[in-house]
Amino acid sequence: MNDAVLLRLRSRVALAALVLGAVLALPAGALAQGAAADSARAAGAAPPAAVPDSGVARAGTQMLNRPMTVGSKQVKLIGQGNNVVRTGPGNEFAIAGVYPEGMTFHVIAKSGEWYNIRLSESETGWVHSSLCRELDDLSGLEFRPNPKLYTRTGSIVLGAYAGAYAFDRKANSLVVGGRLSYYVFDRFLAEAGVSWTHVDRAPEIVESLFGLSLEAENFQMLFYQMNVTWEVLPGRQMVPYLSGGVGSALMLGRAEVAVNAGAGVRMFISKRNAIRWEVRDYRFKSGSDSARLTNNNIEFTLGTEHLF
After folding, report:
1. pLDDT 10s digits, 226-242
2. Which CATH number fits domain 74-141: 2.40.50.840, 1.10.3720.10, 2.30.30.40, 2.40.160.20?
3. Strand order from edge to edge, sheet including 82-86
4. What is the pTM of this model?
C-alpha cells in the first residue's frame, strides 16, 4: 500500500515539473496574451486575438546596427578611363581609390567643386566635379560656414584710396595713397601706407622771433605711416575700427616726424573685396627754424581693398 502511494506521488511530481518547464519556456509576449485572455474571460468578454510574431522587433534591432547611408542623392562618374577619388577635397590629399566611368555613388556633402561620396558602408572619399555628373539636385548639400565664425587671420589686404586733405585745417587739397595690411589676429592689423598731396595755402601773417611776415605755402608733400588697426566688430560684413601709428611727412626738402590717429568703417561687398572710408588726423611740426608750428592735418578718404 505504501509503495502504491509513493508511486503516485512520484508521478504527480514529474507531471508538475513538466508543466513548470513548459510555462518557463513561454515568451513574455505569450504570457501577457494568456493573462489578457484570462482577464477577458473573467469579465465575460471575448479574448483578444493573438498577434502573430512579425519580426518587427528583430528588424528594428538590425536597422540600428546597420551602417547609416546619408541621403539618397547620387553622382555618376563621367571621366574617361579611371577616375581618381581622394581622401579630402583637394588634389593634395591621398588617393582613396580609382573607379571606372559609369559608376554611381551616394553623395554625403559638397564643398566647392568637390563631392563627398560614400564608397562603401565604412569608407568615404572626395571626387572633383569635373569627373562626375549630378543625377539629383545637390544644392542643399553645399557647405556654408557660419559667418559669425568666419576668420580673416593671416590675410593680406591691398588697398588704394583718395580723398581730401586739410593742411593745418586751413588749406584743402586732393590726397591719393595706397595701403598694405596684414591680419595678425581677427581684431588686429599691421598696416603700412604712403600718400601724396599738394598743399596750396593762401598768404597769411606769421609771427616769428624777427617780427611779422606774410607767407604763402605752395608745395607737394609725400608722407608715409606705420599703423596698428583694431577692429571693433571683427569677422562681419561691416567692420568699424580704430587706428593709430607713426610716420614721416616729406615737404620743402625736410622730413617731419608725424603721429596719427583715425577711425573708419570697412564694408565687405564680397568675401575678398571691401570698401573703406575713414577720417584721420596727422600731427607734426612744420616751418622754418625760427617759426616752428604744430599742425593738425585732417584727412577724409574713400577707397577699395582686396584680400589675398
Report:
1. 999 999 988 788 999 99
2. 2.30.30.40
3. 95-100, 82-86, 124-128, 114-118, 104-111, 74-77, 132-134
4. 0.49
